[in-house]
């Protein structure tokens, strides 16, 4: 069984192949939870397409016999210029996914961002990621909940925290509505039927127990409904004033995740943040919004001398990481790409996803004529190439 799995993982040539393998192993409601986006999913597709539409022009006759994919982020050197984005409730997609990914990121020396809404506590994830962990904060409408998370993150040893700004309202995800998704799961006849068709997922899930938002366990006990807990994750009142309070409170590096406008990025710099994540939550929030690749150059142009610029949303290939870098990003995060890996084959599948992204990255660097990330720049952007005189 395990052998079979390893052999089929070896045949996966790209992240899309892992996605397809995950789709076949996971009940629809759980697959859709990760795979889906807001409304028509236009923004979800636009993210992927916008990266893939960007042409980089190779330069040849550069000695690329030795290629180095390392990248530095907040003084720490990682093996690759990408890391795992924060994903809430990922154990619903594949049981045990959070810890598998945190441990793997440590082993592969890439960053792992633990979500406030993870299905594993931030303390367990800090231990598993062992120095490679960063913490993502959802600001609660209840200040004591936010303070509780911040002090726990501090005590757990996280040095970098990213505050997610792009959830002033809940994303409207049509697939989840159609699937009648509820947290904790309601075992409706439809859900039971879907689980019965995916026995490995069902048995593994039974062993692990029903996933939940582990950091809010106390709240879950006293709340009368999950909707009540959700109110602490979605904060219409989160404002620049709230950010100022968090900046004053958090002594470590602080980033704002979910920036799409250059003026918001400039304001983050003025408020003393250390970085931003140019992100649209992987197309899960605003279907009418722009792709991150579209807004990245303007944002990087405005703040790259003041802030660390990270980007996510739509990265599915190693070459997309290079495209992001050419557009001005210092680092990239990937969400679904690694989640699909875990869905396709647990820890071995996530390992395959990282290996594929790295393989593609190394090949693309060589093809581009760059020995390392510093060798990739805006001069590789085909659109920016000088035109010959007519
Ligand atoms: C997310 N994302 C997210 N972001 C965040 O700040 N906190 C969170 O808890 C979550 N949860 C979450 C769940 C699921 C199922 C997905 C797919 C995404 C957004 C995530 O961090 C990241 O911005 C996107 O996943 C990036 O897009 P790609 O790489 O998935 O295209």
What percent of residues are in strands?
5-15%
**What does the radius of gyration come to?**
20 Å
Q: Name the average pLDDT.
A: 94
Count of helix runs: 17
Describe the protein in words.
47% of the residues lie in helices and 11% in strands. Helix 2 packs antiparallel against helix 17. The model has no long low-confidence stretch (mean pLDDT 94). The chain has helices at 2-10, 15-25, 28-35, 42-53, 97-107, 122-129, 143-155, 174-178, 189-196, 199-208, 217-222, 226-233, 240-249, 262-270, 292-303, 318-326, 336-368, and strands spanning 71-73, 76-78, 82-84, 112-114, 133-137, 160-164, 253-259, 275-278, 308-311, 331-334. It has one domain: Alpha-Beta Barrel (TIM Barrel). An 8-stranded parallel sheet has the order 3-10-9-8-7-6-5-4.
């Amino acid at each position: 069984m395990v052998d079979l799995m390893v052999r089929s993982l070896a045949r996966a040539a790209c992240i899309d192949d892992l996605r397809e393998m995950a789709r076949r192993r996971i009940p629809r409601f759980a697959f859709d939870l990760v795979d889906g986006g807001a409304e028509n999913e236009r923004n979800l597709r636009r993210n992927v397409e916008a990266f893939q539409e960007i042409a980089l022009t190779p330069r040849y006759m550069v000695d690329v016999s030795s290629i180095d994919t390392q990248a530095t982020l907040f003084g720490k050197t990682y093996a690759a210029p990408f890391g795992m984005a924060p994903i809430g409730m990922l154990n619903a997609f594949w049981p045990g996914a959070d810890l598998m990914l945190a441990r793997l990121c440590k082993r592969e020396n890439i960053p792992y961002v633990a979500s406030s809404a993870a299905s594993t506590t931030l303390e367990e994830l800090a231990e598993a990621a062992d120095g490679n962990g960063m913490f993502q904060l959802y600001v609660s409408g209840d200040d004591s909940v936010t303070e509780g998370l911040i002090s726990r993150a501090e005590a757990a040893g996280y040095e970098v925290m990213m505050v997610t700004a792009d959830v002033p309202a809940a994303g409207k995800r049509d697939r989840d509505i159609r699937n009648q998704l509820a947290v904790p799961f309601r075992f409706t006849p439809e859900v039971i039927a879907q689980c019965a068709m995916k026995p490995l997922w069902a048995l593994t899930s039974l062993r692990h127990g029903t996933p939940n938002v582990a950091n809010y366990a106390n709240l879950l006990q006293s709340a009368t409904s999950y909707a009540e807990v959700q109110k602490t994750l979605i904060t219409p009142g989160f404002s620049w004033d709230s950010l100022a309070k968090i900046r004053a409170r958090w002594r470590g590096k602080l980033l704002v995740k979910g920036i799409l406008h250059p003026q918001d990025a400039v304001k983050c710099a003025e408020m003393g943040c250390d970085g931003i994540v140019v992100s649209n939550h992987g197309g899960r929030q605003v279907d009418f919004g722009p792709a991150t690749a579209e807004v990245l150059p303007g944002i990087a142009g405005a703040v790259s001398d003041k802030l660390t610029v990270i980007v996510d949303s739509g990265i599915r290939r190693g070459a997309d990481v290079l495209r992001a870098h050419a557009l001005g990003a210092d680092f990239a995060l990937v969400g679904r790409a690694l989640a699909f890996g875990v869905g396709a084959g647990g820890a071995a599948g996530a390992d395959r996803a990282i290996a594929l992204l790295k393989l593609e990255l190394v090949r693309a660097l060589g093809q581009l004529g760059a020995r390392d990330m510093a060798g990739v720049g805006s001069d590789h952007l085909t659109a920016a190439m000088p035109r010959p005189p007519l």
